[in-house]
Amino acid sequence: MTKKKDKITKKDPKKELSGWIDYKNKVNNNEKKRVSASLTKLQAERRHALLTRLGFIILFSLCCILALGYYVSPKANVASVQVKGAPELNSKQVVKTANISPGNKIVFCLLKGKEYSKQLSDAFPEIEKVQVSVQNTNHLILTIKERPIIGYIHEGIGYRKILATGKVGSQVIDKNKIDKNKPLFIGYNQKVSLSEDIKVYASLPQHIRDQVKMLSGETRRPTQIVLVMKDNNIVIGNLSTIKSKIQYYDKIKSQLKEPSVIDFEIGAYSRPLTQAEKVKLGLT
């Protein structure tokens, strides 16, 4: 039996090597393209970062130049000062107390808001705080917030504000400028403790305070307080107990047929007002 010889396949070495070389060249070319693309992107990013930094430096320099130019120009100085929110106060006196002059720089005035508040509240009891602002580049505005008012005390030909702090305002104002809804404190002098009556009045319920027209300092005893109500009733009480007893006022007044004296000093009783009492308190 004759054996068949296996067929031997011959490969061309040059052809095989040529294929390998082509593959390596293709791979190298792709790698070169990727490296080239990465370098291009990196260069673009560096240029962008450089331009950004350069733009920031230029912008910052321009801002500094403009700020310096404004600072040395007349526009940086205070041209005028306007006081708002306190019509009874003398504006010139307020500006003088704050020590603001045309030579001051606007930017420094804006930074001294708390200092102005302290200076002015120390000088004027009615001032609670001050807000500083600028209008039209160099016109300074002082906006004043006044303290709450609980009443007025007569002085000379006018009245002074009685503040929630217990202090009396610095300015004497005309009668036609007072708030008619706030009570008047009359007949008080240096021998009478105004501060005690203010504290007691401020501690009363709001609906009772709204009914008070006047407090009289002409009392028989230092511990006594006299309230003249808007319905023309007179309430007399003791400084230490009036707050707890005044709650019965509305019930008692509903039973009255004419203006009366309601005495809360010892117990609680009422009697009609005499003509002399009406004249004395200006109720006729």
TrEMBL record:
Topological category with respect to the lipid bilayer: Single-pass type II membrane protein
Residues in POTRA domain copies: 76-147
One Gene Ontology biological process: FtsZ-dependent cytokinesis
Function: Cell division protein that may be involved in stabilizing or promoting the assembly of the division complex.
Family: Belongs to the FtsQ/DivIB family. DivIB subfamily.
Protein name: Cell division protein DivIB
A GO CC term attached to the entry: plasma membrane
Ranges that cross the membrane: 50-72
Family matches, as Pfam families: FtsQ_DivIB_C, POTRA_1
Originating species: Lactobacillus paragasseri
HAMAP family reported in the protein's UniProt record: DivIB
Compartment(s) of residence: Cell membrane; Membrane
Xref: PANTHER family: CELL DIVISION PROTEIN DIVIB (PTHR37820), CELL DIVISION PROTEIN FTSQ (PTHR37820:SF1)
Keyword set, alphabetical order: Cell cycle, Cell division, Cell membrane, Membrane, Transmembrane, Transmembrane helix
High-level lineage: Bacteria, Bacillati, Bacillota, Bacilli, Lactobacillales
